[in-house]
Design a protein that fits this description.
eight-stranded antiparallel β-sheet, 3 helices, 8 strands, Pathogenesis-related Protein p14a
Length: 143
């Protein structure tokens, strides 16, 4: 009986562990305090009815991150990669290849320059665009 109980407990732990790793890591749900610890250059850039907006990095440097915080919890995180060469398109393609191979069952939109994954508790949107000589790749995690 003990052996059966131990086996069931071990299987339960393995299933929980496998499920927990079956989604990409995010900053969703983290507190503002934790975010400031993890992103020392995080700065407030504005607020609206959807929450406070924070940024880490500078868009003119090519890569920056944005976070929306509501009720002291991250509800959106966005990374933007801008370039005037092929780097942002390569980044977009590699993100898509990596995510779609690891989580193919989560793909909900698969258009050439717009991809979406649904993990139940959050969604991921990936886009690529070209405008006025600038290439932009974006990945947005939201609840």
């Amino acid at each position: 009986m003990k052996k059966i109980l131990m086996t069931l407990m071990l299987l339960t732990v393995m299933v929980i562990t496998a499920y927990a790793q079956d989604k990409p890591g995010t900053n969703l749900g983290k507190s503002l305090y934790t975010m400031k610890q993890e992103f020392p250059e995080l700065r407030f850039i504005g607020s609206d009815e959807n929450g406070e907006r924070y940024q880490d990095g500078y868009t003119e440097d090519g890569i920056s991150m944005f976070f929306r915080i509501r009720n002291n919890s991250v509800v959106e995180e966005c990374m933007i990669c801008d370039s005037d060469d092929g780097f942002s398109k390569m980044w977009f393609d590699e993100l898509w290849k990596s995510f779609s191979s690891k989580w193919p069952y989560s793909v909900k939109v698969n258009k050439p320059y717009s991809k979406m994954f649904d993990f139940g508790s959050f969604k991921i949107l990936m886009t690529f665009s070209q405008e006025n000589g600038t290439n932009r790749a974006l990945i947005l995690y939201s609840r």
